[in-house]
Automatic annotation (TrEMBL):
Coiled coil: none annotated. NCBIfam families: IS21_help_AAA (NF038214). This is ATP-binding protein. It comes from Ramlibacter lithotrophicus. Gene3D superfamilies: P-loop containing nucleotide triphosphate hydrolases. Belongs to the IS21/IS1162 putative ATP-binding protein family. One of its GO terms (molecular function) is ATP binding. Transmembrane segments: none annotated. The keyword ATP-binding applies. It holds the Pfam family IstB_IS21. Residues 99-231 form the AAA+ ATPase domain.
Amino acid sequence: MNPVPELAPQLKQLRLSGILDSLEARNRQAIDGKLAYTEFLAMLVSDEVARREQKKFSLRLRRAQFRTNKTLEQFDFERLPKLNRALVNDLATGRYLQEKAPVLIVGPCGTGKSHLAQALGHCAVRQGVDVVFTTSAALTQGLNAARATGMYDRRLASLARVPLLIIDDFGLKPLRPPADEDLHDLVAERYEQAATIVTSNLDFTEWDQAFPANRLLASATLDRLRHNAYCMVLDGQSYRAPKLSPVAVKPRQPVAAAAKNGHA
């Protein structure tokens, strides 16, 4: 008697329907290997746990909203010989997440700041941490839009609770009111409560320029961002440097043709 037809609805009721995906193969394996009932059950439970973990990972990855699937394994460290690779590897372990410490990454355009930030975010997702990736402009625009619909407090609270928030391209555009105040409020809410990664084309000494309307607000915001922060400077050639086309070589005229045209 085949128990699967009766078993299927029961597994669905218990929210264990994923077991059906490997049940037949595991049953055959148990028969061929003469496994004990407990060993057979252990394999099924292990399969279900692995499926659930993969489902959680995929969900976190979608929620993170990374621009691209950049990982640390794909990062070209050879282009940045001055980069502290030991620090990058230490950050990849996620210790800064437990410390709730900021990570600040600066460097010229195209040196891999966004890649590195997203790669660290990907490491966090693998470790079961919820991540949100956004640009500075999109972040402040989203908060302002939430204000217009009366959802500002809820949106701010949601962003403040994210275990890892990655803010890309800070300082690319000046922060005008109320964007400067919104960013300050978010940084203040997250201060020593959750980890934040920030990337910028500006040198650390130039970050106050992102707040042209209120230098006092700049000081208060940056003071919190810099406190106990891990800082990295990416100094190297741009990944986006254009590829030069080969110089066209003019073909030499055959000697016979040259003589015919009256050239020696």
